[in-house]
Write a structure and sequence with these properties.
Two copies of one chain form a homodimer.
Chain A: H1 3-22, H2 26-42, H3 44-60, H4 65-71, H5 75-90, E1 98-103, E2 109-116, E3 119-124, H6 129-140, E4 144-148, H7 154-170, E5 178-180, H8 187-192, E6 201-205, H9 208-217, E7 230-234, H10 240-252, E8 261-267, H11 268-284, E9 288-291, H12 293-298, E10 303-304, H13 307-311, E11 318-324, H14 327-337, E12 342-346, H15 350-359, E13 364-369, H16 376-379, E14 386-388, E15 396-398, E16 404-415
Helix pairs in contact in A: 2-5, 2-6, 2-7, 3-7, 5-6, 6-7, 10-11
Chain lengths: 418, 418
């Protein structure tokens, strides 16, 4: 069978399975999730063996150590996968909820019902635990899932899929509710992103080149973000102790995450007081600082920042620093160079905080907190399938609710339109 | 200036204007709306003159009478435009509302703020009143608008735009909050739908060929529907009087609207009782009936329906009719042939009604009511910018709230991620 036919069949089966999982009750879905967790726990040996095959191949292909690290399953990672599924089982099921029911002058009652989106395709690289996480989130939200992991993790992903299928079977659900693309042929992704009739949304998780390619080529809506150029603005009404703690944490707590601060903006009025102690912390932690002229006059250790720096998501030990006149100049900078991901202000001035929250057009806006909090678990979503910087549908961390949509329900007693 | 440069400049100005209108307060936006209405009311003569130029050209080009009808401004249509803007001014402003604020274990408080989408481009044909409606909805929801009407209405649209600009000016808002594309060059649409940096969402309103073209070519998300193949299913537990009234209204109250029923499904158990009286009503009203074999045995006047009929949105005096075994067969038919727009069940059985509402995957699902109710005004939205059959973001009639999105807001007191 050629790849096009294979992927087309997967899509057709997913569409049929979507109708079944959409109407499954909460108890059935939770049973499937718990049985998946049990299957993963008792298949530790098989999972490690499958993963060993992937790792052997990865080393042969000389994949870089970061990639091999992400690819590696350990007994701890396996236990975390099983735990994650049990946690998803414990989350509230939003499917079927009816809200905002109102009686209209015509006599009909109109409301909104939360329903699954339908078929969700998740395209990811490296981490095999995404297979279990994504399967769990889709099942709980009543969606059928098509999972396409990177070729480097194919044996691990198929072994995890076997556990997922075991869970679905015990709960009386069709295995086709969660399908893993079994071929490593790269053409499969190209086929998947054009299955407009069979796939409702694509969630890409991976490197920028993958996301950028999908943005160019996909004919199906995506829940995604490309860049995470996150800012912290230290206002001249900031509590400087808080400011230093937050700016330190936002950059250095983890360097490679999308919600890590990449540019620090400091109000002129406090720059001379806050930049020297902050620079000391950063330089001690090995962070390279790149500043504008004014910042460099205060901290001569800074290298000069170029125009390109303000646009750059370093995902590493570099921070760009700019001194700005005031809140307006800070917000102008963010509007010009930001990626609408996560931006924070540090200030004790309530009116300025309100303006920042209202006017900065990012998926998460924060007052007096580290940008690192932009995360599904920290926000209380229980789990996240990804982070979106798009304006439509779900923005920011996307959990179970982001995998659902609202349709209109109308209750009549024989009403007709006049 | 070439079209590409012109449209690019429009986009750049819209992006800048979006930041201004996004932060405008409710009173300012309402003032602009009321002043637009006043300008339209006092410009009746200019509007009729501009429209006369369009109509003269349309007759010269021998546009069909339906198109000329939609293009025509009358004193009544002009008064309705002004009224529409006043009604939008009276609607609640959702922008800036914060909901679901919860304290998290880390100490941060997390909630969601309703915010404008940014820049909305509306591409439409013929009806000049869309210019005023769309401008009003975008201003109220805090969005900048780019309006591209059909070339046949260019003089009318520019005259209405002058009134919109007068209203914006009086309220102290930049005219670039609402821009009408001033060229009738068809290449402008092609440019507009690729302005990914400047336009956040496109709302196409017009014929199927326009929508289908935009679906193929747009690189920007759309709020749209292509087909409206709406069904009414008469269950064997239906109140047959209600069923006849609803099925009559759903088809015949207006023939050319997207929420008009195109296919009637009737349960076998009541077909012999409900189809003859219904057929009499339809045939008296000049509706051509196309049935499956079973329906034709009951009503011999029906022509045979082909497979193609079940997929067809007639938008005219034709109805396809099928006898089905039960609710499941009805829902299978809708899943196979429907367009996920609006579907209704007539039944007195609560469990079956619940199943229909839950399992039929359409933007509006109804019990014991005419599909013709799927409309922004009937649902209480005040006005609608369009109807969406997409799964993400807004489904069904889209009003002011559908032109907004939710971003995350985080209130901290110095919290950092551990």
């Amino acid at each position: 069978m050629d790849v096009g036919t294979y992927v087309h069949n997967v899509g057709r089966q997913a569409r049929a399975a979507a109708r079944v999982i959409a109407k499954a009750d909460t108890a059935t879905k939770n049973r499937a999730l718990k049985e998946m967790a049990a299957a993963i726990a008792r298949s530790r040996k098989e999972l490690l063996e499958a993963n060993a095959r992937d790792l052997q191949e990865a080393r042969k292909q000389q994949l870089d150590s970061a990639m091999i690290d992400r690819l590696t399953l350990t007994p701890k990672v396996i236990a975390a996968m099983a735990d994650g599924l049990k946690q998803i089982a414990a989350l509230r099921d939003p499917v079927g909820e009816i809200t905002e029911l109102r009686k209209r002058p015509s006599g009909i009652r109109v409301g909104k019902m939360r329903v699954p989106i339908g078929v969700v395709a998740i395209i990811y690289e490296s981490r095999p635990n995404v297979t279990a996480d994504a399967a769990g989130l889709c099942v709980k939200s009543g969606n059928a899932a098509i999972l396409r992991g990177g070729s480097e993790g194919i044996h691990s992903n198929l072994a995890i899929a076997a556990c997922v299928h075991a869970g679905l079977r015990v709960a009386g659900l069709p295995e086709s509710v969660v399908q893993v693309i079994e071929t490593t042929d790269r053409a499969a992704v190209g086929e998947l992103i054009t299955l407009q009739d069979a796939v409702d949304v694509i969630v890409p998780r991976g490197g920028k080149s993958l996301i950028a390619r999908l943005m160019r080529e996909s004919r199906i809506p995506m829940i995604k973000h490309l860049h995470g150029v996150c800012h912290t603005y230290i206002d001249d009404k900031a509590d400087l102790k808080k400011a230093i703690r937050i700016a330190d944490n936002a950059k250095t707590q983890r360097l490679g995450t999308c919600n890590t601060m990449e540019t620090l903006l400091v109000a002129r009025g406090v720059a001379a007081r806050v930049l020297p102690p902050l620079a000391r912390i950063y330089l001690e932690k090995g962070i390279e600082l790149r500043g504008d002229g004014e910042a460099r006059r205060i901290v001569p250790e800074m290298k000069p920042a170029t125009e390109e720096d303000w646009y750059t998501e370093y995902l590493g030990p570099i921070l760009s620093v700019r001194v700005v006149k005031d809140l307006d100049e800070a917000m102008d900078h963010i509007a010009t160079y930001g990626s609408q991901h996560t931006d924070a202000i540090v200030t004790e001035d309530k009116a300025r905080a309100r303006r920042f929250l209202r006017e900065v057009d990012s998926s998460s806006v924060m007052v007096n907190a580290s940008t690192r909090f932009a995360d599904g678990y920290e926000y209380g979503l229980g789990a996240e399938v990804g982070i979106s910087t798009d304006k439509l549908h779900a923005r920011g961390p996307v959990g179970i609710e982001g995998l659902t949509s609202l349709k209109w329900v109308v209750y009549g007693t024989g009403q007709i339109r006049k």
